[in-house]
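Running this now, will post back.
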Amino acid sequence: MQKLPKWADVGLIPAINLALALIVSGLVVSLIGQDPFEALAIMVRGAVGSTYGWGYTLYYATNFVFTGLAVAIAFHAKLFNIGGEGQAQLGSLGVALVCLAVPWPHWTLALPSAIVGGALFGAAWAAIPGYLQAKRGSHIVITTIMFNFIASALLVYLLVGALKAPGMAPETVRFPEGARLPSAQEILAVVGIPFSRTPLNISFLVALIACWGVWLLLWRMRLGYEIRAFGHSEPAARYAGISPLRITMLTMLISGALAGLMGINAVMGEQERLLQDNVLGAGFVGIAVALMGRSHPVGVLLAAILFGALYQGGAELEFETSVPREMVVVIQALVILFTGALDGMVRGPLEKSFLRFRNKPKPGVPAE
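Update: finished.
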C-alpha cells in the first residue's frame, strides 16, 4: 500500500529535493566568493530568458528524454540499465551509416530511415547484456557498464579507420544535404515566429512522440502490463505465465532502441557527421532524469527540461562570471544526489507526517 499520495510522490518530493540541491549549491557558490542569488538569476536567464536560451535548453533536453526513457522503461522491469551511454553511441553509428549510405533527396525520407537505423543499433547493443542477464545470470549493471567502454572503443576504431574522413580529425564526412534536419528557427519561420539560431531541431518532436509511445506501451498495452508485473514480482509473473527471458529481452531491446534514438538529435540534427564523442554523458544523465521523473514519461520530459536548463544555464554562468565549469558540474551532481541517493532523506519524514495527519482524530470524533 502506498504511504504517500500520488501527487506528493511525483511532485512534492522531487520539488523538495531540487530545492535542497539548489540551497546546498548556493552555499558552495557563496564559499567561492560569488553571490548565489546572482548566479541563480544568470542561470535562469541564460536557460529560459530568450529564444536562444530555450533553443539550447530544449536541444539538451531532447537528448535526455531519449536516454531517460531508456532507463525508465528498464526500471519498470527492475532492470538497472546504465548502458545508455554505449547504446546511444551505437545508435549514433547506426544513424550515421544510414545517412551516409544513400544520397538522400529530402530529410522526410532520411529521418524515418535514420530512426530505424539508430533504434536497431541501440537495441542490438542492449540485447547482449539482456541475454546474459536472462540466460546466464550476469548482473545487468556490470555488463552494461562494460559495454559502454566497448562501444566507445569500437567507435574510435571505426573513426580512425574505415569511416574516417580525409584529414586529421577522427570523424566521418558530412552527411548529404538531403539528410539535414530542419532547425526550430526554420520551422517557426514558416508561421512567422522569430527564433534564434540554435541546434534545436525537429528531433524534439520525435522525443515527444517517444514519450507518448512509452506511455501507451506501459499503461495501454499488454506487453507494458507484463513488464510492470515482472518488475513488481518475478515469482508472481512466472506464476501468471510471463516468461522472464522474453520480458527481459524485449525490455532491453526497447530500452536500447530509445537510447539509440539520441543519435537523431546529436548526430543528424546538430553535428551532421559522426564525431568521436557525440553523447557527452547524456546516457548517465538519463539515469538521474528517470529517477527524478519517477520513470513516468511526463516526469521524464519535465526532468529532461530541467537538466537541459542546468546545462544551458551553467554554460551562461561560466561565460558571464568567474564561476568555473567544475562548479556547474557540482550543481548538476547535487541535483542528482538529492533526487537519487538521498531521496529517502525527504521521503521518510514526509511519510511519517502524512501518516500522523491521517491518524489525527477529527474534532467531535473520538479517537480509536
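The CA atoms of residues 6 and 12 lie 9 Å apart. More later if anyone needs it.
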